[in-house]
Structures are given as C-alpha cells and as structure tokens.
Write the structure tokens for this entry.
Amino acid sequence: MAGAIRRTPTAKRWTATYTGADGTTKKAPGFIDKRATIDLARRLEDEARKRRAGLIDDAAVRLVGHGRSPIAEHVEAYKAHLRSKGGSTEHVRATCKMIEVVAEECEWCTLSDMDGARLSAHLADFAASGRGARTVNWRRGALRSFSRWLVANERLTRDPFASVPRAGEHTRTRERRALSDHEIRSLIVATEAGPVRFGMDGERRAMLYRVAIGTGLRRGELASLTPRSFDLDAEPPTVTVEAGYSKRRRRDVQPFRPDLADALRDWLDAQLKGSLLWPLRGRHTAAMIRTDLDAAGVVYRDDAGRVADLHALRHTFITRMAMAGVSPKVAQSLARHSTITLTMDRYAHVGLADHARALDALPALAPDPKVGTYAAHSQRREGQTRSVADSETRQNAEGGDAQKHRKNKAKRTPSQPVSVTDAIAPVGFEPTTTPIMSRAL
C-alpha cells in the first residue's frame, strides 16, 4: 500500500513506499513534504499495477527514459562500443569528439532533440565555411553511424538523420600524381642527407618514403607501425597492419620486395621494439614531404595541378604495378581496394609517354620489302592452282561419274577471280596469318 516513512527520526526527506510489479514492497526517495511523497508512492504503485496487467511495455518505458537522458551519456556508451569493435584510439576519440561538437553547435541536449533538418543546415554552414565535400561527408558519417547505433540498441525508434543527403564528391579538390623513378631516387637521396624536420631525422623520413612507395600503406597505417610489425625473414617479407588502424577494419598482412627488406634490416634493429617508427600527425605530413621535395628539386604541384603529398606515394606504388604489367586483379589485391575500377581508374596514372612505350611493344605492320603485295598474291594464286590440280587428279581416279558431275557443275557456276583483298583479309581482332604477315618486321 502506498505511503511515506522516514528512514530516521531526524531525516528531512520522506521515503515513498509502494507495492511493486512483483508484489513486494518497494521504496523510492521522496520529498521534504509528506503529502507530495505519498502522491509519488501512489503514482508508482499505479504504474506497477498497470505493468502487472500488461498495460505498460517495459521497453517503451526504457525508450522514453533514453530519450530524456543527456546525449553525453549515450556518447560514452557509443565510445565503449567502438573500442569493443577494435577501433583505434585516435579514431574513437575523433569520432566521439565530432558528435559532441555537432551536438553543442546544434544545441541538442537529449536524444529527443536530435533533428535531421537541423543537421542538414549545420552541414550546409560547415561547407560554406570552406570545407571540402569529403570533410563534410566525414562529419555526416560520424553522426549517421551514431544514430544507427542508437536505433540498433533500442535507444531510438527511428534514425533522425536517415534523410540527410551526402555532399557531392564528383570533383576532388586534390588531384594526386605518381612520382617517376628519377623523382623517387632524388627524393630519397636528398631526404637522407637532410636535417631533422617535424621531429624526424633525414634517415627516418627517407625510410618512411621508401616503405610508403614499396607497400602502398596509407598515412594512418604507416603511423601505427612498430619494428614488430615487420617480418623480414618471411618469404616474401611482410608488414602487418592491425585491424584498428586498417581502413578495412581487419588485420592486413602486406608483402613487399626483398630489396626493401634488406634496406630495413639494420635500421629496424636500431629502433626500440615497441615504439612507433614514424610519429605522423595530421596535415603536418603534407608540409613535411613538400619540404623534402623542394630540397630534392622535385615539384610538389605539376603543370596539371596535381600534387605529390604523402598519399601520392600510394598512387606511385599502384602506378608502378600497372606499368610493370601486373594483372588488374593482383594490383587490386595488393592495393587492398574493394573494386578494380578504383585501383585502375583513380590510382593508376598513365601518361602519353607510357602509351608510346606500349605501342612500341606491338609488332610492326609493314611487309618484308623483298616480298611485295603483288608477289605475295601471285604465290598465293599459284598455290591455289596446284591444290586444285591435285584434287582433280584424285577425283579422276574415283570414276567417270564424278568427272561428269564436276563438268556439269562448272557449266552451271562460272569461275570467279579471287581478289587480293579476299586473299589476305584479316578475320576478327587479330590479323590472319598469311605469307605477307608472317614475314612482317
């Protein structure tokens, strides 16, 4: 029965007592006023009675409670969820910080305050401030992942951001290019002899560039490597990127050439086993490689406006595979891309000089000067004549009836001359092998 009691004779607040849904006596903190505490006890007891009768859904009650709780509480739970999935510390921190920033700027206090229209307006203002489409979509993606997690964990009934559109990324603000072999050598030699920059000496930065070009790893993946990440004695040598740092969110084992392993061996032995090899921090990498390129006499931005930043070394890795004749499927696997189109269209940079080298590899189409077109045609006609004569000789031996049939057929169908075009015309994609083509240079 609903009522109010004092826990101690000197307590200022009353305690509400009521019969719970399981039939036992429950207690709940009350108020200083006894009558208000009794009213609270009656409401709690009435709610327990309805719950016993099945008139109140416990899930609905929890959902209402989630909607009224601060967003910060849900962000903390989401942070724990990302960590359990193996997300890197940097990724978890950046994602949750982004959610908190957007919630503050949109003035959302609880989950029920979150609104898709307000987020769309916020992203439009964010883009108008000079941010690129990919940066805007990254912010949108952080909020969309958070809202989907809320729905999946029954903290919201629907996704409030499902209708928020993506920003168009049809034109990329930064086009990258692949370095030539000469530019690669110049960059590595100049960097090794260079001074300390951005907390790394010249040898460390040069080794970073060599590993980036030799493996195609991304900036975040390179920043996660330690000496233990490399297995130089394997066949072939490999470097391992843990799932928390891989873009695919799975453990990647990337092979590389033995000559790179030989260059790494002595340098890795001098490093602390558990320490990070390259402390890369955000946009500092673009300034770092640009400084080293200037020291090497290599242009950072070419005439077409394409840049050679740290991620361009990944483009260089994939382009070198394409120029070496590696099959697209193998190149896709080594690049760790989801589609061949992404590997060959966006990352494999082929120029006019490469096209010219490919054309030079094709067989020549000019005929042998000793055998002209007319001579080849004459030889072909002579061969046909001898073939027909031999055939007639064999058929004459078979009997007179066959000879009569052959004469009647010759009367009905006049002989047609064989043209030069018919004699040497190619069939299909590849040219037909003829005496004239077999002697081509």
User: Anything to note?
Assistant: The radius of gyration is 39 Å. The chain has 19 helices and six strands. Residues 373-396 form the longest helix (24 residues). Confidence is low (pLDDT under 50) at residues 371-375, 411-441.
